[in-house]
Amino acid sequence: MxxxxxxxxxxxxxxxxxxxxxxxxxxxxxxxxxLLALVFAGTTFILSIFLYTAFDTSTxxxxxxxxxxxxxxxxxxxxxxTTFFGPLVVIAGWTSIKDKVHQYMASFLIMEGLMVxxxxxxxxxxxYVFFEAMxxxxxxxxxxxxxxxxxxxxxxxxxxxxxxxVFMLIGLIYLFIQSGSWSILDWHQFPLSLAVQKWLxxxxxxxxxxxxxxxxxxxxxPDAHVEAPTGGSVILAAIMLKIGGYGFIRFSxxxxxxxSAALDWLIITLSLIAVVxxxxxxxxxxxxxxxxxxxxxSHMGFVTLGxxxxxxxxxxxxxxxxxxxxxxxxxxxxxxHGFVSGALxxxxxxxxxxxxxxxxxxxxxVANTMPWFAALAVLxxxxxxxxxxxxxxxxxxxxxxxxxQANFWYAxxxxxxxxxxxxxxxxxVKRVIFGDVANNEVAMLEDINAxxxxxxxxxxxxxxxxxxxxxxxxxxMHASVEQLLQHIQQPKFSVAGI
Amino acid sequence: MSLKLIxxxxxxxxxxxxxxxxxxxxxxxxxxxxxxAILAVAMSFFLxxxxxxxxxxxxxxxxxxxxxxxxxxDGIHFExxxxxxxxxxxxxxxxxxxSWMVHIYxxxxxxxxxGYQRFFSYIALFTFSMLMLxxxxxxxxxxxxxxxxxxxxxxxxGFWFKRESAIFAGLKAxxxxxxxxxxxxxxxxxxxxxxxxxxxxxxxxxxxxITGDTVTIIPGFEWRWITLICVCLFIGAMxxxxxxxxxxxxxxxxxxxxxxxxxxxxxxxxxxxxxxxxRMSPLFELSDAALSFVMLIGxxxxxxxxxxxxxxxxxxxxxxxxxxxxxxxxxxxLGVSAYSAAIFHxxxxxxxxxxxxxxxxxxxxxxxxxxxxxxxxxxRKQMPVTWITAWIGTxxxxxxxxxxxxxxxxxxxxxxxxxxxxxxxxxxxAVLIGVLITSFYSFRLLYLTFHGQPRYTVDVGAGDHPxxxxxxxxxxxxxxxxxxxxxxxxxxxxxxxxxTIDPVLFGGWLSDSLPxxxxxxxxxxxxxxxxxxxxxxxxxxxxxxxxxxxxxxxLATFIYRxxxxxxxxxxxxxxxxxxxxxxxxxxxxxxxxxxxxxxxxIGNGLWKKADDGLIDGWLVNGSARLMNNLSARVRVxxxxxxxxxxxxxxxxxxxxxxxxxxLK
Lengths: 498, 664
Description:
The complex is a heterodimer of chains A (498) and B (664).
Chain A: H1 7-25, H2 30-54, H3 75-92, H4 101-120, H5 124-133, H6 135-145, H7 150-179, H8 184-189, H9 194-211, H10 220-227, H11 230-255, H12 257-262, H13 264-283, H14 288-316, H15 323-355, H16 366-369, H17 371-384, H18 391-406, H19 408-415, H20 417-432, H21 440-443, H22 450-468, H23 471-488, H24 492-496
Helix pairs in contact in A: 1-2, 1-4, 2-3, 2-4, 3-4, 3-11, 3-15, 4-5, 4-6, 4-11, 5-7, 6-7, 7-9, 7-10, 9-11, 10-14, 11-14, 11-15, 13-14, 13-20, 14-15, 14-18, 14-20, 15-17, 15-18, 15-22, 15-23, 17-20, 17-22, 18-19, 18-22
Chain B: H1 3-23, H2 25-56, E1 63-73, E2 76-84, H3 86-109, H4 116-135, H5 139-157, H6 164-195, H7 200-206, E3 214-216, E4 222-224, H8 225-240, H9 249-252, H10 258-267, H11 272-279, H12 281-284, H13 288-310, H14 315-335, H15 339-366, H16 384-398, H17 404-418, H18 424-450, E5 457-458, E6 470-471, H19 480-506, H20 522-527, H21 533-540, H22 544-562, H23 565-573, H24 575-582, H25 587-631, H26 642-663
Parallel strand pairs in B: 5-6
Antiparallel strand pairs in B: 1-2, 3-4
Helix pairs in contact in B: 1-2, 1-4, 2-3, 2-4, 3-4, 3-10, 3-15, 3-19, 4-5, 5-6, 6-8, 8-11, 8-13, 10-15, 11-15, 13-14, 13-18, 14-15, 14-17, 14-18, 15-16, 15-17, 15-19, 16-18, 16-19, 17-19, 18-22
């Protein structure tokens, strides 16, 4: 690391501090609150750019460890994704949130700090605290600014995710008792028997499979999305889901590598079910937000598939070609899905702000009255269906290629997303965007204003940049991926002599 | 200018034009948009032609350069780069020329359309995508171009997005293509598995090493890797080049404006599959099984789609089915290892089919967007230029001696005849009978459109959207922006075959970039009997294809000029056959009933029964109900205010955090 100043701590505490300031500013001063929120989120994003420039990709294998925080090639992209969305969410909620603005903005700022904390904690207890604390502001956001069934959705969301992480907590405590340390890095090296690893693996799986979410513990996500306000959906889809994927890569793979290898078939099967089964379910949704939520689950299937395909590659090939491709593909998929799903929820938000409906049937021919919006929305839906040249293609392409190296059928089922993803994305486009003006409400629609164009345009640039030149993003993670793959090939139980 | 810069400019100029015409549509206005797009594509054409000239006379060899590294992962280099050899240069020149003509034509055809700038933006973007596809030196960029042309095709078919039928056709085209791409992507993944590279040169050089390697995908069936790769790649080609049974999207794509039917759905994009298989000839050559498969698919397409073309009444649909049938010819040529003959036919077809479509478009605007040939007739007097150029296009299409289509199609037929590959006998009959069918429907189109008595009436007060058979004004010849491209396309439709068959095809210029195993080289076998273009045409007069073509002409003339009642009588006598053809062998209905309906059914079943019923209803909410009962006693603790809970939690967690930091 190039500098000694505690940039990670700043990235965590600056938005949280900002959140408290905003809260103090109070309900009566909404314009000031918005401005303050933007300043804090914007500053955090600018600070995070220093993290990017200071991060040395060639030696990323060594963590930049401060007292209990540190980052590597897996966390830096995710932190940048988090800080990138901070200002965007503030701007997106600029006028559409009229009620309790200070609490809304404070929730998002605090959430941002906590999420950066999750991605940079190297101490398991700290990780756990951030991991759980993050739920609270999200709980508030859905519960206070959500839709009519928000109470059911919030309780479901909270209990589901909380229950999952309790099992992880048991695992963490066990590891602490055994190793005498809370350091995740120490645990990476800590020898464990295969049986213990399996129990720990299942504990981690309980937490992270709910978070990401994997089939069949995914049913909280569509409900939460449908009820959440736009900003909540954006953060939930763009960043919170990634914490599940990050958990797999930070805990499951390195701490329980042998169990991961032994149970890789389970994850691969569940991932493929997610891709195909959820693809079909997404197709028949009538609510735009639900459709995008299901599409998220399907896309997250590629994340888990890409991570665990490495084990199948090592088993089935001599060269090991495809292992790194899969893990890096999973990471790229997480970043890309952050952009694309975030943008899609923002698009639905734009429509919802005008017509107060999320139902596909209430729209039709939006392109007639909102041409610029239509152009951006089509771009994002195309990215969602994995069109080359957009970020949505890169991760899926890498994971499908990697899956083929392990087994033809893995790739076969994964590649079905090409058809299913295009079907649900473009069928929605056909019904909502294209066609003749469907009703008087659509006829009265106004195209996106400068503020909305700024938000969507920024993400569009990111989507195209990653799609046309993913090299800088992939470069960030090479060293960490290499180190991880070397690590997971060393059996841990043989070290333990068990 | 360095060569690299020139090569980069060729695709980038249309891309820049697309961006300007699309994003700055207000600023540049209508004229600005068309000038920018036309100039950019014209410059692309001249630069491509310059490269072609360098290849032919300047001694330029094959250029294989990388432009930038898209990504390196797992030691695999994913590059954006160009492979400029005889094949790609020829494609670049053809694509940019036809695109340029279509750009000019669009000024006339789309003159009154409110989406004028958007249209120019799309077709310029298409030109860029197609160029990236043909110039690629690796599988990644090939796939990028492949999908990008699919995207633009989708946008252009649904260009008139208010029309339900148009946006449906766009969606259908994209999804059917995605079915093909599904196979294509698996093929690319298999290439990576076998060769560890995405680069053409590296893959092709390693290809002979794996001919013996096998794979078992379904237990009990052992496949050769190379066959699996080729079949998967070809499934991609079946989608893009609309081969049966993935052909269903192409006729519907006629919902798009006519200029793009000419450019995308006749001359260039649909030939991408043909181009791709030719490019992959070092792989396909190693698998006789895959090539037989290719050949039979092509034969089925060539003959069945021609038959459907006979009974269509929509002028554009007749040409669309003709395109399908001709793509079938090209595919058959691929199947008998006559790659250069396929590309040669691709080139001649690009000119005369674009010409036919643009001529049809000229008729359509003259009749105020009337496309039904039953309400045309006699237009030769009002539209002489369109009429003559349509005749030229037709003669080229049916393979009349000395016309461009003659040289390319006859070579294919001869090559199939010379092939000893499994299935070549059947394919030979298919391409022979196809000549008769082609000739028949082509003359039918000419007669119904341009000859006989007008079957429409002119009614000045008919309004903007008059019923079928009534037009507002007397039809008149189209403006110069329409007729000049027709003439410019008619010239190569006549002469290009005659001029180039010797140097380009039999002289081996084209096959330099299309490696063929010597024992498979059917084009060379045909070439042994080649004594110049004139001799070839003279010789043809005594061969079956010529007389089959004449038979088609005689039949069509008899039925549609001499005894018009015969058509109806035939229709009544053979109702079953007519119904099958009119319903396009019921393939659409079959897909609708099986795939589409089933997919929705599966989706609903999984959603309502599995997700909502089983997982949520039983597991999730069931356990919640259980907890509810248990917790009835401890409810006293709970105030019910969301903020109370949240506040307590935050205080608790921050407390824990504080202790934590202090202890550290």
